[in-house]
Amino acid sequence: MCATAMRSFAQWDHHPQAKALVRTPPVSLIRIGDAPKRLPTEDPSRPLDDIRVLDLSRVLAGPVAGRTLAAYGADVLLVTSPNLPALPVIDIDTSLGKRTTQLDLRQHSDKEILRGLCKESDVFLQAYRPGGLNDKGFGTHELAKLRPGIICANLTAWGWDGPWKDRRGFDSLVQTATGFNVAEDEAYRDFCKLERHVTPKPFPLQALDHAAGYLLAYGINAALCKSMTEGGSWEVRVSLAAVGQWVRSLGRLSPEEAFGKGRPFPQPLDSEVVALSTDWPQDNSDTTARLGVHEITAIKHAAILSKTPAKEGRYSQAPMVLNAHPPSWLS
Fold first, then answer.
1. Residue 241: phi, psi to the nearest 5?
2. The model's pTM
3. Between the CA atoms of 218, 58, 308 and 220, what dihedral angle is there, to the nearest 10 degrees?
4. Of 18, 87, 256, 301, whose CA is between 20 and 30 Å from 322?
């Protein structure tokens, strides 16, 4: 079970785990092995053309990173376990632009399939519990030996140092432990002129997950650049706790600005949302063809690149399910 005590910012700042993170940036790059310099793709139509990404992540932060890489040209293969529950509403959104397959790493044959995919991959993105994939033979240093030049992108809840480094965790838990829920509640009660009686008030969305996902994608791009200019295998490290620390450092709105002047959440059919959305066709794989033809409308990517636009909407595909494709690369 994942659980933690709710703390204020002051209480968290005195915690040993917080002290272990004081000098930790939201994104870290570490060289983990030697390899020749990566050759850039000639005349790419998008920044990440010819980059192969294995995405072994679930729910939000890791999948958001993989979706971002897919939008800018990468061949992203989302690999999930048939033994874990699907989260259809989230899975459909975060798998946009990817291909999806399932492997059971408790089976030797499926482990060998994954090993084969790793040997031909450029990026291995994972967000399982600390050490979880090490036990299966897919730890960072094992991957660097298996595929010299690989980028290993790892996401954890609490970071790589301190007494909580091996703990599981997720966005809401990190918000609670690190003081955000208390701070939000205190600000809201001040705005409403209510008596101070602390109850947890979470962010209106999973802000740490989304921020961590985009920072992870940024780190992967930076590591790919490093591999072209310096060579080597690289690890990208992002933790929800370090991202929270960075978010906190950006400052806060006053209660009046946040709760008094803040706009209500837009609704899906609001004109502003419609203008920023695009329609995605369902991928036409053998698996999805049996499900009938569907379409999904989703918000466009925020970053607009004039020469290499995001691969989305009718220029891409939405797999809709977690086992839409065979475990293989496109080419």
1. -65, -40
2. 0.94
3. 30
4. 301
